[in-house]
Amino acid sequence: MEHSFTRWIVFFILLFPVSFTVQAEAPPHAEAVFKNYAQQWTFDGSIEAVNQATVSSRVSAQVAEIFYDVNDRVEKGALILRFNDEEIKTRLWQAEANLLAEQAQLKEVQARYTEAAAEAKRINDLYQRKQVTRSALDKAEADKAATAARVNVLNAQIKARQAEVEQAKVELSYTEVRAPYAGVMTKRWIEVGEMATPGQALMSGLSLDDLRVVFTVPQKQLTEVMAAKLDVLLPTGEHLTHLDKTLIPAADTQTHSFHIRLDLPQNLNEIFPGMTTKVTAYGSEQPVLVIPKQALLKRAEVDGVYVLAQQRVVFRQLRVGTEYDDGWVEVLSGIDAGEQVITQPDRALLYLQQQHD
């Protein structure tokens, strides 16, 4: 019975031939659409220490001791280097001795002035009573004036000697170089036994307590970025927002860009100066032409998608922009809204092969 039925079907097909158009099943695809997204700008930033400095010599002297080296941690006010201070101490002692001598001489002259003033008063009284000549009065007044002038000279000299003593004390204090703040030594510029001159670099260091992110913004984006919400992605993967920002109000003369600083909170783990960060600025929402991220195909340095149109698949080169967290990618040029893009690019070639077969 079955053989008879099969023969009838074969006979029917031969008697009434028909044609079948077999269409390959289209691969998964999605439409390029406009979606509202906050404007985004991403910048490369770097971490730097707020407090970083190089201490320099303020005297001409030989280095006697260095108490810290590179990578050593120091406390604020710690003695990090000491100069040989014998020569400066000698100058201080000499200045103090000169001051004492001048002060002793001043006491002696002041005593003579007291005597000269008393003698001048006595001679003046006698002169008023016509008991001494005018020349005697003039001599007494001259002795008094000369002694007063000598007192004034010694007072001036004593001030100069006091200044010499203070200067020597200051120079003596410069023979001990102390850390201006707690931090880490990063560079050593001199060795024990070397002669230093005023202004010569000695040691460099920085503080890890206060850090900040610095990034550069082009002039045309400055207004939007300063008004935008900023998000900092640290090397540890941590995101930071609501950071205090400071604009350096002077553009680079070559690039016409501005520097912005963001103060980081203290006590961040594994964050050090010199590390790089990503700073993302989120502005107001704008309609953006986007496609699913999985539809994007990268060939060498070319971005593109397979576009499905009228059962045909065509590769289209694109210029893309921001990749959003919800899985969509901004399209700057290459396709229009409403076009269908294949979301599984690896199946596009299979689809073409099926169509060809």
Automatic annotation (TrEMBL):
Gene3D superfamilies listed in its UniProt record: 2.40.30.170, 2.40.420.20, 2.40.50.100, Helix hairpin bin
Signal peptide: 1-24
UniProtKB keywords: Coiled coil, Signal
InterPro entries recorded: MdtA-like_C, RND_pump_MFP
Segments forming a coiled coil: 92-171
Annotated ranges, domain Multidrug resistance protein MdtA-like C-terminal permuted SH3: 288-343
One Gene Ontology term of the molecular function aspect: efflux transmembrane transporter activity
Entry GO CC: efflux pump complex
Family assignment from sequence similarity: Belongs to the membrane fusion protein (MFP) (TC 8.A.1) family.
Family annotation (PANTHER family): MULTIDRUG RESISTANCE PROTEIN MDTA (PTHR30469), RESISTANCE-NODULATION-CELL DIVISION (RND) EFFLUX MEMBRANE FUSION PROTEIN-RELATED (PTHR30469:SF18)
Name of the protein described by the UniProt record: Membrane-fusion protein
